[in-house]
Input
Amino acid sequence: MNPWPRVAVVYLIMAILGLVGTWTFNIIAITQSSPFVSEWLGNPPATQSLQLDLLVVAAAAGVFIVIEGRRIGIRHAWLFLPLAAFTAAAFAVPLFLALRERKLASQSSATP
Output
């Protein structure tokens, strides 16, 4: 059995793109001494709508990660929540999904 199903590899690629993409802009903001938090909070309503949208999606993903991780036996799945906060949800969520697919594939190959 392939330990990394194709869909898991797709999720891994997405995780890498999420990490590189978000941190490219974070590094630019840091090197330019950008007022990161005030830029987020001082944006127009359309941007705030997008921010709230992403916040709710990230919260739902966090709940899913904890519950699904427990259900299928991924130990310490809750660690993806601080990982998302310190890196990016665009990295942590696809990474969890990749590991979830790998776990599900190993469970299905273990059952006769």
User: Anything to note?
Assistant: The chain has one domain: 6-110. Residues 6-110 form one domain. DSSP finds five helices and no strands in the chain.
